[in-house]
Amino acid sequence: MNQDTRQQIRDNAQYLRNVRPLDPEELHEYVEDQPHPAVVKQVLREEAFDLGIVEQGDGTFVPAPEGRLSVDFDGVERFPDRYEQQVIDLLTEWGGLEWHSGDSGDELRERIRDIKERYLQGQAVEYDELTALGYAVYHLPDYYAVAKYVLADLAADGLLPSQLRVLDVGAGVGGPALALRDLLPDDALLDYHAVEPSAAADVLESLLEDSGQNVRWEIHRALAEEFDPSSPIGDNSGGGAGDGDSGSDDSTNEGYDLIIFGNVLSELDDAAATLYRYVEALADDGTLLALAPADRNTAIQLRQVEREVADGGPATVYGPAVRLWPHQSPDSESWSFDRKPDIEVPTMQQRLDDPAGGTGEFVNTDVQFAYSVLRTDGKRMHDVTPDRGIHAPMADAENYVTDRVNFLGVKLSHDLAEREGANPLYLLGDGSQKVDHFAVLTEASILNEDLRKADYGDLLSFENALVLWNDDEEAYNVVVDGETVVDRAR
Q: What's 362-425 look like in SS3?
């Protein structure tokens, strides 16, 4: 199809979109060379995001909803069967019907062991077909669950538009991509771009092929450090087109509504410098989401990168580690992560685990993750500024050790008590802390029950809390006893 025909279809669609539903059977008559209606429909699908239209069940197109994205979400119980079957199909292509047993099963298990060991040692992983399949079996289900929880929260907070342009950096085998696609209602528009140079892109491409209507996607097979997020879409070398490669010459990049770095920061040579570049590619009201595994090294690294990018500009922290005090930034270690209910054991993991003795070595159902949400418009999850006349900043903790004080703090952990029967223990932060602060619940009461009931990331108000220094942990203990009142702050 020549560009003139495509432009005529676009022009007519733009003119008629607010008059009546766009019917390819009608629209083709308004084009000079009268292309087949199926050709018109394909062009409308490819140009849907730029035209702001969505396809309906009857094959016509209508204006896409505007405003903020609204999603229905009630947690993640299991990795969807359709995706698991697609992964199993890839495994079958690689190793046959009995991919999980015999030599192929041994080879795959050994590769997963190697991946896990290299990760623990902080060593680089070479991505080939077998490594990509290993990631798909072992990590894709929990990465999918993690992404879905966080993305649903972003939508609930009104941070994502109904017409959503996304850049997924280090997209891997597709956890965020699949979670996002499943969250979107039928009338939302998604323009999804993945940056993934490795063989994982082949798995991702296979999983995205059935994306259907109202989703345009493209995989850019380039390193995160080499990809230019500010260039017009389609101009980056190494890109591989998916369903949405329109072939039009006037593609522009007005900024991404959402940029995702999913479990990739630890693999970058200079994560902070890379994030700096990508933050500049956000739309004015866009969001950058960084995810990391919950283990100590990667979760702490996430906070360090967050501070380099946010506390010196160009971004600010939306959450969860909100800076409540103006012109203050934290220096604490802040091993902070969220935890959600485990998902069911995927069949493919069980098949791989059983021949190895069924010990659970190849089962990964934990949904634990660290995350950071950055923006450039100054918006915060908790738009609250403490009053020094009422609240004590954590930065000044050494001045009020052994005193009872009032302060505001974000709950940054679930119960960290390591033994049964120990006092519940929670990490806190107000964005000014120089060392870690832990709330210790020594005497539960109706006055302080919000400490236990609050979710990760909730803002809490503490009244009459006793602050002590803990030599063993080199941290401050905020003792919550019968004299302490804890409320969710609004």
A: CCCCCEEEEEEEEECCCCCCCCCCCCCCCCCCHHHHHHCCCCEEEEEEEECCCCCCCCCCCCCE
Stated pTM of the model: 0.93
Q: Domain boundaries in the chain?
A: 3-63, 129-294+337-375, 394-488
DSSP annotation of 445 reads -
Residue 467's φ and ψ, nearest 5 degrees, are -105, 125
CA 365 to chain centre: 18
- Does domain 3-63 sit in CATH 2.60.40? no
Q: What is the DSSP string of 340-376?
A: EPPPPPPHHHHHHHGGGTSSSTT----EEEEEEEEES
Q: How far apart are CA 129 and CA 146, in angstroms?
A: 24
Alpha-carbon distance of 42 to 3, in angstroms, equals: 14
Fold of domain 129-294+337-375: Rossmann fold (3.40.50)
* pLDDT value, residue 253: 63
- Could you give the residue ranges of the DSSP H alpha helices within 280-363? 296-310, 347-353
Angstrom distance (rounded) from CA 336 to CA 317: 15
Which amino acid would we find at residue 59?
Answer: G
The rounded distance, in Å, linking the Cα atoms of 31 and 363 is 56
> Nearest-CA neighbor of 144 among 435, 382, 343, 414?
343
Nearest to 465 by CA among 435, 433, 428: 428
Instruction: Give the CA count within 13 Å in the CB-facing half-sphere of 232.
Output: 7
Q: Are 148 and 73 in contact (CB under 8 A)?
A: yes
Question: CB under 8 Å to 437, separation ≥6 — which residues?
Answer: 332, 394, 397, 409, 427, 428, 429, 475, 476, 477, 478
> Sign of the C-alpha dihedral, residues 161, 166, 170, 172?
positive
What does the block give as tokens for 124? 């680089």
For residue 346, the one-letter residue type is: P
Q: CB under 8 Å to 34, separation ≥6 — which residues?
A: 28
The pLDDT of residue 431:
96
- pLDDT at position 121 is 78
* Ranges under pLDDT 50 in the chain: 234, 237-251
User: In angstroms, rounded to a whole number, what is the distance separating the alpha carbons of residues 143 and 312?
Assistant: 30
Structure tokens at 481: 């006893």
Q: Domain 394-488 maps to which CATH number in 2.130.10.10, 3.40.1480.10, 3.40.50.880, 2.40.50.140?
A: 2.40.50.140
How many Å separate Cα 301 from the centre of its chain? 17
